[in-house]
Every structure is written in C-alpha cells, then in structure tokens.
Amino acid sequence: MRILLKNGRVINVFTGEVEDQHVLIEDEKIIGVGDYYTEEDADSVQDMAGSYICPGLIDGHIHIESTMLTPAEFARAVLPCGTTSVVADPHEIANVCGADGIRYMLEASEGIGLTAYIMLPSCVPATGFDEAGARLTAADLEPFYDHPRVLGLAEVMDYPGVVAGEADVLEKIQAARRRGRTVDGHAPLLTGKDLDRYIAAGIGDDHECSSVKEAKERIRKGQRVMIRQGTAAQNLKDLLPLFEEPWAHRCLLASDDKHPADLLEKGHVDDMIRQVVRAGKDPITAIRMATLWAAECFGLRDAGAVAPGYTADLLVLDDLSGIRVRDVYCKGKRTVENGRLLPWEAPVVGAELARAVRSSFNLGPLSEKDFHLEHSGIRKCRVIRLHERQLITGEWTADIDFDRENGVDIARDILKLAVVERHHDTGHKSLGFITGAGLKKGAVASSVSHDSHNLIIIGTDEKEMAAAGNRVREMGGGCVAVDGGKVIAEMPLSISGLMSEKGAAEAARENEELRHSVHLLGVPQDVEIFMAMAFVSLPVIPHLKMTTKGLVDVDRQQIVPLIL
Amino acid sequence: MRILLKNGRVINVFTGEVEDQHVLIEDEKIIGVGDYYTEEDADSVQDMAGSYICPGLIDGHIHIESTMLTPAEFARAVLPCGTTSVVADPHEIANVCGADGIRYMLEASEGIGLTAYIMLPSCVPATGFDEAGARLTAADLEPFYDHPRVLGLAEVMDYPGVVAGEADVLEKIQAARRRGRTVDGHAPLLTGKDLDRYIAAGIGDDHECSSVKEAKERIRKGQRVMIRQGTAAQNLKDLLPLFEEPWAHRCLLASDDKHPADLLEKGHVDDMIRQVVRAGKDPITAIRMATLWAAECFGLRDAGAVAPGYTADLLVLDDLSGIRVRDVYCKGKRTVENGRLLPWEAPVVGAELARAVRSSFNLGPLSEKDFHLEHSGIRKCRVIRLHERQLITGEWTADIDFDRENGVDIARDILKLAVVERHHDTGHKSLGFITGAGLKKGAVASSVSHDSHNLIIIGTDEKEMAAAGNRVREMGGGCVAVDGGKVIAEMPLSISGLMSEKGAAEAARENEELRHSVHLLGVPQDVEIFMAMAFVSLPVIPHLKMTTKGLVDVDRQQIVPLIL
C-alpha cells in the first residue's frame, strides 16, 4: 500500500530547512521524498495543500505510570498532540511488580498507535532505604534486552553508587553498554569530579538539569541533555538558552512525569514546542530536538525524520509555531484525522499478568493506633518541610508536644506523616511530622509514593489517617481525601496502585476533583498536596525524606531519628 | 595507571569550543576533563604547556590494501599523522581470498596502535561481470558480526541491484540493519527516485559525491556524506562548501584509496584538515568531522571525543591550523612522542592464514600467443579511452587494422589490453584495445585491478605483454614495467597480489620507482598508468570497462563485443 502526501512543506530535521516536497509512504516506511513523485506512484493520494509535514514527536523520557493512565489510554491522550514515540521508563510499576511490571508495560503498549520504547529500570529499589515490591538485578533485566522495543537502561538515579563504584549498579550499566545501548542518567546538581566519574561509567544523558550552567557542563562532557517540562518539575524556562547552537543539537525534550489533566489541557511535547516558540525561539530547532536528535540519543537509525527508509511516523501541521496537529501517521497508518483520534482496539494483556498487576496491594486493615507515636512531653523533632512546587524538601527542627494531639499542631501546620509498607504486609511503617501541607482537618492518602509506592498518609489525626489508609487499601491502590472519616474524593488506581482503569478524560476529571477536594480540608490553593506527597518518600532527592525505614537525611545518606 | 595531561587546550567536539583543561586518563579511557584535577590524581603527569589536546583522527572509509602496506606498516605510516582509528573495508583482499582475506585483515590489524574497524565487504564479486577469487554471501559474512571491531556492511557498490530490489544484496543490507549496524554506500551520481530507493534500503552514507549538489541531496535525504580525498579520487576542493552548517555535522572525512608515497609525503586525515584550513575553512569544523561526527556515523559511543568515558585516543597538537602532531595516544598508550613513532611489535598472523593470503596467484605461464587476437583486416572496434586523473573511462570507436601489429598502433596510441583470470587458473581472459596510456614500447602489468584483481596488462606487443604478465605471476602478485622483455621496475605484492611485505618507506620508494619507470616507456608525465589500469576492469564505474568476460558497457550493464 503506497500513499502519496503531495504538496507538503517538509521539515527537514537534518538541515533545518523547510522544503516543498511530496512524500511517498509504503506500508510502515517512508520510501521517497521529492518533487518528482506523481499520483501514479501511489495507491492513494492526500493533498497537503501546503501544510507542514513534520516527523512525529518523541518524548525522550517519561514514566507513563505518572499519567495514571494505562499505555493505551495514554496513547489516546497524546496521539492528537503529535506524539508518535515515547521512551518510557516503567520504573514505577517495576518497583511495585518487578519484572511482571515491565512485562505488563510491554504487552499493554503493543499496537497502541505510538511506539512505546522501554528503558529498563536501573534502580529497583531506588535505594537501600527503600522497601519496594521487588528487587531487580542485572540478571533480571538481561532477558528484556532482546525485546525489539527495549532500548537500554533507564535513569541511573543511584548516582552515589556509581560515583562510589558499587558493583551492582555498574554491572547493570555495563550490560547495557556491552550491547551498545543507551544508559540514561539522573544526577541533579552533580558536578566536577563526581560528574566525570558518573559519565565515565557510561551514562549518556541527563534530564535533571535545572540551570544552563549545569546543562552546559554536561554537554561539554559529552552527555545529551533532556530538557524536561513535566507537571511538577519544569525546567524549560530556565533552559531556554539551550535552544541555540552549539547546545541545541545535543538536547532533546522530555516530560518525565505528567498528570492526566495537564496532558489533556495543555498537551504533551507539542506544548513544550509552543512554549519555546512563545519565548522567541525557533520552532524548527525545538522540532529537531523532539525528533532526530532524540532518535540519535537512543541510536534509533530509522526514527525522527521524514526521509527515505525512515518509519512513517509523521504529522501534518496546519501551523508551525502553534504546532496545530491536523493528521498523525504512525508507521504509515493514520491515527489522527483532522485532530480526531481514529478508533482502535486497546491491546489485551495476558490474563495472568493482568491479574498480577491488579493484586499488588498486600496490607491488613489499619487502625488509629497504627498512627500513634509512643513519645511524651515536648521534644525537638525533625520535621519535613514541603516547598511549593518543588520536589526538594527541607528539614525543620520544631518543638513537638507529644502530649497534645500526639504532636499534631494544626495552628503551626505540623501534621502527621506515615509511610506504610504495602507490598508484602511486613507491618513496617514510619511515623513523623510534616509542614507545608496545610490541612486543617481530615487526611489524605495515596499509593503513589515514589519510588517504592508504599502507602503514604498525611493527616490531622490518627482516626482520619486510618480511614484514608484503609480506603486506599480497599481500592487496591489509589488516592483519597477524607474528612470526618468519610471519603470526600477518591481516585482508584487499581493497576499496581499507580494506574487507573479509566479513559484519559474520566481519569483526569477524577484527578481534578481529588486535587480540588483537598482545599476543603484547608490545603492552600498553591499546594499540590498529592504531587508533593508523592515525592516525600524518595530518598534520592534532597534533603529530608521518610521511607518505611524512617527519616532519611538524603545529603548524608543515612537514617536519622525523629527526635534530635 | 593514571596519566594527567595538564594545561592542555582541549578541543571540545561537542560544542566546537577550545577549553583550558586538564585531562585525566586511566588505562584505556579518559576518566575526567576539568581544571580541578591535580597531580595527586595521577601516577604520571605530562605538561601540555598550552598545546592542543584533540581527539584522535578517524578515517571513515579506507581500503588498507590500496596503500599496498600490511595493516601494521600502514599504522606505522599514519600514526604520526594522528590517525587513531580507521574504518577499513577489506574489499580488495576479500575479492582475492574471500573470508580468509577478512580474517587476515582482522588478525593483522590487532594491536597495531590505531584501531582498525572493519566493514564487511558487500560486493564480492563486485558484479556479475567479475570473476573474483571468491564469492561472499550474506551467510558467509554472518559470523564476522560478532567480532568487536566489525562495525557493519561496507560500501554497497551494487546500486543497480539495490534499486532493482535484488534479494542477494538486500539480504546483506538487512542482516546489518537488523543488528543496528551501519551500511556504507557507494552510488556516484545516483539521484531522485533511484537514490530514494537506494537510501530507503538502509544505506546510511556515501563517499562518492563529487559535487555539492550531489552531497546536499544525500544529506537532505538523511545520509551522511564522507568527503573523500584519496590519491586518485579527490573531492575535497569541490566539496568545501560542506564545511559550513547545516551540512558539516552530517559529514566525515575519508581517504578511500591512498598510495604509500602519498601517505608518507602528504599525510593522511591530517593533510585533509590542512587543505581545508588553507582553503579558508574552520579547522575545528574539520576536526569535528574527523572525530565525533565520524564516530556517530558508525554508532561508536565512546570514540571521537576528549570526554569522560571516551577511549583515550588523543593527539597533542602544537598548532591547530597546521595540525602539527607532537604526541599520539592510542587507548591511553603513547604511540608517537615528539613526532616519532615509538616501537611496537607487529602482530603475528596465524601460519595457515599467512600462507593462504600469500598463495593467491594461481595461473600457468603465459606466452605471446595468449595475447593474439584472431581477427584480420580493418574493423571498427570499441576502444577504452582513459581520461587523465579520472576513474571514469570513455568509449572510442576506432578503425583497427588487425593485419598490422595485430591491431596495435603506437602512433595513434592504440595499445593492447588484456585481463587474465588468475585466481583459479580457468584460462579465462579478454583482449581488447585502450587509448590514453601512451606507451611507445614495452608493457606494464599488475595484479592490482579492482575489484577482482585479476592480472591486467597493457602492452605495445604480445611478447612484451607475456613477459610482463609472467613476471607478476612469478612474484605471486605485484606490478611490473617491462622493456624489451626485461623488467625495468617492479613492486612485488606477495600478500594476495595487493600488499607488500615491506615497510612503508621501502614500499613507497619501490612504488615511486615503478611510477617513474613507465615514463621511459613513453607514458606521459601526467598519466598515472598503474592507477588508471587498476580501474579499467571495474564495471561499476562508467563507461566502458573490460573484465575476464569481455568488454562491459557499464551504463547499459551488458557485455559488448570488441568489434562493432
């Protein structure tokens, strides 16, 4: 089957030119680009009438789980944005379900229009402070390299391990490099000698740069920089100078973590390009980052360009600076027509796998005494301090009066925090205090709690915390807001406690209701409590975090006691 | 073992910047680049005192056999030029010795200082008109892909086969692409739809561009362009506009075929860069082509840059525009110091292989009647016309009087040409006429005759031709000039009839004597007869050629009779 897209303005990502050309597609491939093709060369002809033909957009690094959508629903949400490939790190589900989680993501992303490339999670569990649902060694990852959509090793967050030369993590890196595969990095603020050691281990890119200085050091040292614009972590504005040479061709675009409403309202990679253009940068440069240069990062030889031999992943754009996507072709097949998604069947995941990822919650009922701290009197305690719209937390030393509300002090915004192991019903849990959440009543609980995805709860009293925790448990995973022991909003995430069974619009609506519900509990308008909470248990981001094993001083990489 | 190169001016090929830095090497790798390293970080320190530190130069496409040197002697010749890697296509020896030839080149290039990457010859024999010493199928090439220095499939010269969709050649291309390997192209003047088909088959680069227009079409269609400057084919001057963006980053440098004297007198990739600089272009751009961008073409992730994790192949340059190479490090080991090659042992090739490549000549003695054409009277004949310094030949129709000197007419420069099968003693041979060689007496003969490397002879009479041919036969391969039945100069090429056993200087001297000797026979000063002769039997270059099977009309791809 040959399709001729005639009279297009083809965006040439090799040269940055825009050329008046016809594009000839045969089955999954582009087989010709030239003004010499005629209708006789094709079985079917589409007149582009001067619209732009652009390679499909590539998200260089995303955790699909963070969208709370299954891969198929995610695809439905982003195909109209012109995303034809994502490089996904199933790190979240792997921390819950181990190798089954990776298998699920591979099966559930087969035939969903866009191509979901998979990077193998490198840090399951993320650190020694974590109690994840599984542990993945180099040997566990080994068989996945044969899968045609597996590209390499996902973000190596254990940068202290790499810098220290720890065998486990180096073995995983070397396994990928021996195969000539890409190894993604994650090393915020690492610099100088430590960064050299990290890069020399074989780590080819980073998506954690928050300043131009940080990005330039990495590019000069040979890494590619993924400019990240997610729902929480937003680096685009600060990294705008990278949209000029000599930096641009060493950069790509990534979303990392995107919430469903954000995807539906603003868009995906297309929205990053729009933001870049609004900031006065060249759309073609941004498009090159989101196509060819992304493909090059992963050694993909036939992706990211409109040229002979390339996969026919392409977009018809009515407008360049607005990236108004009219049609989308994935592997030569139209998946979006006039902005509307054409229907397709979601893949059916094997019954055993489908069951495995839906039965990840393994925890007995919780009672209020599970949230009681056995201390008395006024004690100096470490309190985790949330910062607005940041994943970095602070440490605040506060006098806690355990004799009043077991330490909770709503007036001073000192609330109770719990992290409860929920994979293997070990009974392990930690209790502590947090400030910055702003609840005046009730509690919030979630099974989305990077990276181990244990049950995390912030509450104003023990009863409310138990109610919230139990509701998440009953749903087999999800997020909930509770007031007076009653659910005021909830979002079930029955697939490994991370993903919804629902469509993107419905999931986004549920998520929005949940987000807004917390303001009824007193959470300030500018605090995204579920997002903030999701990173309170991740001891790879500074400064004070809490896992099931206790408070973690991230900078010193050690467990520290609640009471000083 | 850690070496610190301090106070260097490091050429950053990622950004094009030159930075004052120290470079830390550990064993084979660069492990750090920064101003924060001190002598305490290293076991040994070298003060660069402001000299440039440049990644080692990469020749993107070379036939080492064309230098007439063994890989070790070739390395000795080019290491002082700063060449630390070559991507070699052992196409010539493979056409003589088949898989043994590839094996020989791999063994003979192990541990020779520079890294000799190997591309697997795609066209053995080159065409159906050829009688080579061997035939290599996709299955024959298969096992070589596991060798760590084998990168992909070498220049696919059979572009008519690719365009026509012939299964044999497509199978070889697909075998390389399935492994994610590079497939080199060779398709001079191919354009439009045919070029699209050729590229769409999976061919990633071309080194045959002779005009900017040709090169730009290829770059726009996604190929990388190798700018070639060999002894015979010289495209650098015509392609100078490519040393600017948006073209430059899609280009690399290649020598293809270089004669030994040329290497010793002018240099190698370094000399290309010097020529570029003399023409007013930026040396850094040329260096980036010869390093990182070459590595990218072949998917080499740790070659071509001075950066953490990269192989410590680097040069110390006293001067940038002159590329004056002071020291050369290969895999962290100094191989050139103050411009002098440090001694090392040539690799020892296994006895059986060594024997195999030295017994490639299989041909009985020749007599004058072997060169006699059984025609009489005056007949209109096709005569091959040599053009000065071009591989392209013409067709001239001349009246040949077979009753006088069996058609030879020195006054009109019509000489006799013979191509004699020499691999399997089949007795196959072709006789014809050639103009442009200019011999007034004697004969010349050579076993270097692309790509089948049969015995080729141009002579003024049959006796001289027999004498010349027999001498090449006695040497087991080589080149010879004969006058009055006596050798006036010769160059034995006992390794498969292509390579000398001698060192570069001695081989170059022999070759120069041979080159000059032919002028005694009347060959004009501006005719390089051995080089011209070496391409007279290659039916992939237009327009009229002769193989053992007869005259070939290359444009029509068919055998044509001598007499019209």
Question: What does this protein structure show overall?
Answer:
- In chain A, β20 (415-420) and β21 form a beta hairpin.
- The first copy, chain A, contains 16 helices and 28 strands.
- Chain A is 25% helix and 27% strand.
- In chain A, α9 (260-266) packs across α15 (504-520).
- With 564 residues, the first copy, chain A, is of the alpha/beta class.
- Chains A and B meet through β3 and α7 of A and β3 and α7 of B.
Architecture blueprint of SSEs:
2 copies of one chain form a homodimer.
Chain A: E1 2-11, E2 18-26, E3 29-34, E4 44-47, E5 52-55, E6 57-62, H1 71-78, E7 83-88, H2 91-97, H3 99-108, E8 115-120, H4 138-141, E9 150-156, H5 159-163, H6 167-178, E10 182-185, H7 192-200, E11 205-206, H8 212-220, E12 224-228, E13 251-254, H9 260-266, H10 269-278, H11 283-289, H12 292-297, E14 314-319, E15 324-330, E16 333-337, E17 340-341, H13 351-358, E18 378-385, E19 394-401, E20 415-420, E21 429-435, E22 443-446, E23 455-459, H14 462-475, E24 478-483, E25 486-492, H15 504-520, H16 529-534, E26 544-547, E27 550-553, E28 558-560
Parallel strand pairs in A: 1-4, 1-5, 6-7, 7-8, 8-9, 9-10, 10-11, 11-12, 12-13, 18-21
Antiparallel strand pairs in A: 1-2, 2-3, 5-14, 14-15, 15-16, 16-17, 18-19, 20-21, 20-23, 22-23, 22-24, 24-25, 26-27, 27-28
Helix pairs in contact in A: 2-3, 3-13, 9-15
